[in-house]
Each structure stands twice: as structure tokens, then as C-alpha cells.
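Researcher: Following up on the earlier apo prediction. This time include the ligand. It's zinc ion, with the SMILES given after the sequence.
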Amino acid sequence: MKSSIECDLEDLEPAVAAWERKAQSEGLRCRACAMKIPFGNRDVYFRTGMCGHCAHEAQKS
Ligand SMILES: [Zn+2]
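Model: Understood. Below is the ligand-bound prediction.
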């Protein structure tokens, strides 16, 4: 059984690689923990300037 998540990941790979390069060259980092922003946290990053973890923590308090 091939999961849909696996398929999605294969499709996503070029986009993830492009994001990694962009994050690297533009120095996109979380303003709270300075972690490199993962592909999946792009939306959160553009909204908050933070990685998903820090944005979540910030929201809690
Ligand atoms: Zn962070």
C-alpha cells in the first residue's frame, strides 16, 4: 500500500529543495530561536516571522 503522504512528498521534493536554497541565501530564520525555517512552516513564518514551534508557543502565552 502506497500512502498518499508518500506521493505528496515525492511531488514536494523540488519545492522543498528550492525553499531550502531560498532560506539559505536569504537567511530566513526564526526571530525567536534562529532556527532555519522548515518548508512546512513557510506560511507561519511569513505571518509571524517565527518557526511553527515558536509561533505556537507565542500564541499560547
Ligand atoms: Zn523558532
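Model: The pocket of zinc ion is lined by residues 30, 32-33, 35, 50-51, 53-54 (CB under 6 Å).
Researcher: Noted. I'll compare it with the apo version next.
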